[in-house]
Fold this protein.
Amino acid sequence: MADFRIGCAVWACREWLGDFYPKGSRASDFLRLYGDRMTCVEGNTTFYSIPISETVQRWAENTPDAFRFCPKLPRTVTHSGELMPQRSAALDFLTLMQGLGSKLGPIFAQLPPRYSPRLFADLSKFVANWPHQQCPLSLEVRHLDWFKSPHLERLDELLTRWSVGRVLLDTRPIYTWSNLAEDPQLRSERKKPRVPLLPAATAPLVLVRYISHPDLDRNRDFLKGWVQQVGDWLAQGISVYFFVHCPHEAKSPAIARYFQEQLEKAGVDVPPLPWSLIQSPPQQLGLF
């Protein structure tokens, strides 16, 4: 049966206090609170820093049984040139992440813009030598030639052969501005690239990274299209992990909840969002 999960890129965000997280929550409680509200998280933190095994164990202990992590391969693996010389480090990372037990979702490899189709042989070897039976692998490419023939077809054939899921990066919402002053990434240290969106499934599982605009209204048309696409995939037995990002991270949870609501209104068979099942504490009445 196809699985639908929704979440954000991170769980440690102080801007969520008072809205997504109760006001006054401690940072040490953020993951537990996040796991009570979302069903998965994009493990962006592992891209920048590899945790110790005790940390991974705490992650597992602080989340519900049905929760899933999608850890990103460290940049030392994916951003150091060819992949095959880093295969041993990639497998060590997988072993570390297996400390999550049943809460480990697919491992996510994000290739930098400089990793072009000229490295196809290297990518083919890396994919072929990944232990797919231990953990599924998902792949995001950013060099623009990967989105053009004949490289697009070669990549899709490779991923389909090994049942490697595509990571679909949708940055359209943050490029809808007409003048620079409206650019939601204007103050972002790490700007998301403008790459083509080609919603193709090469495996029984698809990861979507939706980079939302801080203004909900600018997301409505894009999310309407995703409601249809996600519904189609689930009907075909394809599982979907849908991650909502935002240049203003404070907005991500609310936009994720809006998308969940649109799926439900459209009759798409998705599990309830845990956040929506949490009752808000009653307002304390004044004494006078």
Q: What stands out?
A: The domain at 4-274 is CATH 3.20.20.410 (TIM Barrel). The first helix runs from residue 30 to 35.
